[in-house]
Amino acid sequence: MFLDSLKLLFADDYFKATGLNQLTEQNWRNGTTKPQQSKLNDIIKKIDGYYAEKSKTSIQNVIQTIYNLERIYPEKAEKTVWRIDKQKDGSELKKIKENLSGKIGIYLLYDSSCRLVYVGKTEKQDLYIEITQRLRTKEVKLVLGNQKRQSIVLGEIVNYMTCYEVSDKNLIGQLEAILIGSDPNTFSNIKNEK
Predict the structure, then answer these.
(1) CA nearest to 83, candidates 96, 98, 101, 70
(2) What are the residue ranges of helices labelled H in 63-110?
(3) Residue 15 has what DSSP assignment?
């Protein structure tokens, strides 16, 4: 029977997914009333909405925004060690470190004009370690006003970052590729990767 199939399909979410109530279901089962075509159409619409909401919720659970165009002040703490300070005095370094530590995903780095200069990912080490390492080691080639290309370390030009925690490791590489392909300024990610 149609109702039994729906119950098997949705289990505990049966009434939520179909929009039925217990009385209507009971009346249909014992033959007191018969389902009208309009009611069946309503059930189909309700199920469609249920799946749309479930899909939206699962995507929101996979990708979480940690920072969106967050102003940072990268500075050298030692000869080769970079820190990401939110304030020039370093007062919020701990907060940034806590928010990025232990999380994998994607990050975008921008210059002072909010021009995207680098898209990166991490599937193993956490975002905090990954970003601070890239600031120190990654060189990008920029075209300056005199049209000469100059290599410069990311830490020297980065002023903003956007970070996403991605809980599904299988999506990280695909999302990074989409983000790199979406902005022509990120060509250095592909051509100059060491």
Answers:
(1) 96
(2) 93-100
(3) H
